[in-house]
């Protein structure tokens, strides 16, 4: 995005929530100010100074190589997901936007701020920043567009819009500039993020292929934490392809790395995924062991992993027909639901639906499914969850002898499965 004094004036006017009329009053006409902001006219120095004085900025360019260095350092820290270091660097550049504009880095910093807010779980700030950047996006240059696609994809992931996230990450993969700093690191970061989102969507082929690409790079660069994440993705892929031996071997690799290097977050996720592995095989005793380990490691962190582990324990005890224990874990999961924010809404619905499975159905179940759960998953095209919830809804109507309604929902299950296969193989 080209930068000069007009762009600088427009940027700070918008930052201060000033209209063209408010800034122009007593200095120039609104139409003339608009031309200045579009860099469409050479204005005299006196007018520029008056406008800059009103905005509290300097009309001349302020060179500061240290601010430039800190900005690029911050970008690298965010790429490495080193939140502690990124927070420290951000404190130094947060109020240096005028210098960053003069260095033509302001939009890159603004776009990276979106990712910083996502990583640091500042959801309201991320929402506000996303809305602000969305208006500027049509004017981004090649590098800015790449980062915008990447970070808006991760914003979508944060809000459980996984299909949107997946599509944007694929676009980012295609748009990555050859000249970008840390090209291979950026590219393989995209590969891993595509794999993680594909895993959520049950696109097993995409998840496995992209994870294997990233794993080859991270093994060569000795990035062990990223290797462990790839092994978990690949393990889940093997399990979904009914290859239990290779699945357990990949889980073992991930756990070994996590244990050797004290990667607690990796251990939490690995034990959680192994719990899912055994639950799907209906080997509930083993599932409970791993869910419990994941829950204990994540307890009181108020994270999605803690909630997922509690839900896994609730489901495992339900399958064992140990309803008293299932109720204990339902209550714990429900307590977490009340403390976590709405980006985990599909997990919230999982807890609500299991209330009826554990405690018994009443008429409010139909209202929950038809007015809340099914519209939510259909809007987001969450086909894996739709398979589960269509089946539960179909079984409910079948038990009530509403066979025609039940049959409609059973048909929806096959449509969702077809959609998963079609999208994973395009």
TrEMBL record:
Q: Which GO terms describe its molecular function?
A: DNA binding
Domain HTH cro/C1-type residue range list? 9-62
Q: Which Gene3D superfamilies match?
A: lambda repressor-like DNA-binding domains, Tetratricopeptide repeat domain
InterPro entries found in the cross-reference section? Cro/C1-type_HTH, Lambda_DNA-bd_dom_sf, TPR-like_helical_dom_sf
Membrane-spanning ranges: none
State what protein this is by name.
Helix-turn-helix transcriptional regulator
Which organism does this sequence originate in? Natronobacillus azotifigens
């Amino acid at each position: 995005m080209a930068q000069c004094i007009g762009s600088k004036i427009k940027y700070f006017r918008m930052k201060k929530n000033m209209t063209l009329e408010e800034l122009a009053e007593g200095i120039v006409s609104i139409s003339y100010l608009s031309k200045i902001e579009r860099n469409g006219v050479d204005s005299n120095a006196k007018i520029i100074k008056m406008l800059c004085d009103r905005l509290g900025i300097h009309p001349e360019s302020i060179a500061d190589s240290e601010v430039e260095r800190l900005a690029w350092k911050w970008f690298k820290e965010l790429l490495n997901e080193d939140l502690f270091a990124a927070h420290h660097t951000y404190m130094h550049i947060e109020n240096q936007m005028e210098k960053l504009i003069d260095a033509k880095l302001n939009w890159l910093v603004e776009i990276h701020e979106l990712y910083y807010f996502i990583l640091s779980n500042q959801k309201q700030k991320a929402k506000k920043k996303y809305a602000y950047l969305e208006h500027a996006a049509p004017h981004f240059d090649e590098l800015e567009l790449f980062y915008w696609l990447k970070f808006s994809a991760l914003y979508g992931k944060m809000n459980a819009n996984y299909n949107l996230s997946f599509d944007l990450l694929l676009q980012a993969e295609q748009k990555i500039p050859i000249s970008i700093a840390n090209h291979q690191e950026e590219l393989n970061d995209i590969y891993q993020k595509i794999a993680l989102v594909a895993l959520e969507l049950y696109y097993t082929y995409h998840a496995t292929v992209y994870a294997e690409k990233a794993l080859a790079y991270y093994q060569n660069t000795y990035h062990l934490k990223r290797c462990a994440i790839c092994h978990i993705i690949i393990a889940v892929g093997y399990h979904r392809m009914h290859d239990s031996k290779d699945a357990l071997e990949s889980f073992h690799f991930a756990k070994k790395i996590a244990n050797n290097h004290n990667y607690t977050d990796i251990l939490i996720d690995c034990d959680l995924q192994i719990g899912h592995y055994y639950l799907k095989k209906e080997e509930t005793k083993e599932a409970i062991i791993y869910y419990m380990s994941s829950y204990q490691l994540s307890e009181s962190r108020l994270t999605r992993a803690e909630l997922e582990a509690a839900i896994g324990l609730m489901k495992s005890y339900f399958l064992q027909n140990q309803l008293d224990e299932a109720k204990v874990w339902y209550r714990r999961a429900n307590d977490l639901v009340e403390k976590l924010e709405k980006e985990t809404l599909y997990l919230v619905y999982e807890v609500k639906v299991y209330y009826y499975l554990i405690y018994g159905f009443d008429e409010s179940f139909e209202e929950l499914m038809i007015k809340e759960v099914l519209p939510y998953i259909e809007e987001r095209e969450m086909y894996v969850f739709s398979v589960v919830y269509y089946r539960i809804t179909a079984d409910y109507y079948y038990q009530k002898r509403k066979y025609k309604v039940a049959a409609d929902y059973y048909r929806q299950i096959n449509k969702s499965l077809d959609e998963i296969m079609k999208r994973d193989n395009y």
